[in-house]
Amino acid sequence: MLDVALERETEGDLILSDIGQGLGFRPGTLDGAISISALQWLCNADKSCNDPRQRLKTFFNSLYQSLSRGARAALQIYPQNAAQLEMISTAAMRCGFSGGLVVDYPHSTRAKKYFLCLICGPPNLNSALPKAKLGMESDESGSEVDSDNDEHTVTVLERQRPSKKRKVEKKVKGRAWVLKKKEQRRNHGFVNVPRDTKYTGRKRKAHF
User: Fold this and answer.
1) Which of 14, 22, 41, 72 could form a disulfide with 62 if both were Cys (CB 3.0 to 4.6 A apart)?
2) What pTM was computed for the model?
């Protein structure tokens, strides 16, 4: 494809690289990004050293850094199953993107297309997603045109960030629990069970 682009004297620079290893652009230099049928290949581990989740994380992190704030990225993907679609979408949201998934022709088997529409940064009033195409309808002149609809075809994904680990308070076993256990051991015939005193189950100080 790069050779064809050179023959056609395409404007712009051409780069041959692995997007799973990140994008080599300076931070905030891109005003937008387009990808067609490329992102789903990061889900395939064709080598033992390739981790799909890590490669997706590397790609989206570098894309987020390369885009200017408020810039958009339109990524057309062909996931093999719902698990791949969830993996790609989750990786994008965890890297700080907002946006959502647009599905064209959702009721068609062959014509169905998935578009991951991302926005660099948190969502705002001007970050509306494009409407998805449902199928062909006839207009007043009788010609067929694409019908657009934004119901049941656009899933808005909120920006997700790793939640902080919450401190889990350990349940302290108090005096009642200790007395209950000691009584159970006595009932089972244990002889060397310490006697109950006022110090039983009392919390000890951290230092003397």
Assistant:
1) 22
2) 0.63
Cα 30 to Cα 40: distance, rounded to the nearest angstrom: 22
The 3-state DSSP class for residue 199 equals: coil
- In the block, tokens 């490329």 appear at 38
Return the SS3 of 200. Answer: coil
Amino acid at 111: A
Query: How confident is the model over 94-145, as pLDDT tens digits?
Result: 888 888 888 888 888 788 889 999 998 876 656 667 777 776 554 455 444 4
- C-alpha–C-alpha distance, residues 93 and 57, integer Å: 10
pLDDT in tens, 146-191: 555 554 444 445 555 555 556 666 677 788 888 999 999 989 888 8
3-state class (DSSP) for residue 171? coil
* Residue found by looking up tokens 């850094």 in the block: 65
The residue length of the chain stands at 208
Measured CA angle at 102 (ends 98, 108), to 5 deg = 160
